[in-house]
Amino acid sequence: MDTVGTDRHDRHHRPEHDARPGAEHEDLLTELLKPLRLTGVFDSRWHVRAPWAIEGDAERSCAVLHYVVEGDCWITTDGEASVELHAGDLVVFPTGTAHRLADRPERQGVPLKAVLPERQPGTSGEIVIEGTGPEARLLCAGLHYDAGAATGLYTSLPWALVLDRAQVDREPLLRDTLRLLAAPDRPVGPGDRLITLRAFEMALVLALRPLLRELAGSPASLPMLRHPGISRAVVMIATRFAEPWRIDSLAREVGMSRSAFTAAFRELVGESPARYLAARRMQEAVRLLTETSLPQSALPARIGYQSAVGFHLAFRKWFGVTPGEYRAGGGARAA
């Protein structure tokens, strides 16, 4: 894989330190790069002949996927080297970075909205460009996710992640899923929207799996992985968020002073440890509110708050609505 540019582990059921090389990094990446649960997908099939070029805008809360079924193309974005793709290659833009697809890297394109004006999640489209040059066929998709579930590590991923054909072939389930989704005679019928959504979700999971392995073996790929104390703290927040952590106790747990810990955490993660901990707790609160029938009174203790009032105030500050309003579908906005 080229980087261009499970249930939570129970602490009492595994050793404090795994002796396997890179195990700590694997723990970190497993917890924080778990693919986000998709809320909607728009997919399209492209049948294009050179000359062609299409410019895609930045997509908020949306990963973008391009799978080359046949032919070749180039992906380009501002400030980065262009990348050539061939048949069987897959590229994922984790955070929906604006980019251009074209038969040549220097070719100027037309806006995507000009050839696909309607791209509502749950629908499909098609692009056909007639030319006299080489032909290419692609499967493209916008994978919408809940922005509140995106971790700092996820949003710090490279602008594009490329799996070449050989790497895709080493993941047979990924390869077969992509081929099925790209098929022109893909089955349709009752429940096809949900099936398509879950199939793309699985494709994203399977595409990120090689990424986990490569990043675990190459800590320099993400600055956070170079600092054992901060890496460990992030894993603790991800897996032990229900404990009554304070900044002092987190710093002490990883063998750092409060000031050094706070400075290093902010530099490597991009936000303060207090906000990062709050975000993880709010992420779990939303999961419990939307995926379980637990009474609201049970939530504070489950996510690390000592009082119902404290949880209520924190949730309202974070989302702009109360937990009850959120559960009832009243809408929310992230802080």
TrEMBL record:
Pfam family of this protein, just one? HTH_18
Q: What are the alphabetically sorted keywords of the record? A: DNA-binding, Transcription, Transcription regulation
Instruction: Output the superkingdom of the source species.
Output: Bacteria
- Signal peptide, first to last residue: none
Q: Which InterPro entries match?
A: AraC_lig, AraC_XylS_family_regulators, Homeodomain-like_sf, HTH-like, HTH_AraC, RmlC-like_jellyroll
Q: Which SUPFAM superfamilies match?
A: Homeodomain-like, Regulatory protein AraC
SMART domains in alphabetical order: HTH_ARAC
Outline the extent of the HTH araC/xylS-type domain. 231-329
Renumbered to this chain, region (Disordered) spans 1-24
User: Membrane-spanning regions, if any?
Assistant: none
Task: State what protein this is by name.
Answer: AraC family transcriptional regulator
Which source organism does the UniProt entry give?
Streptomyces narbonensis
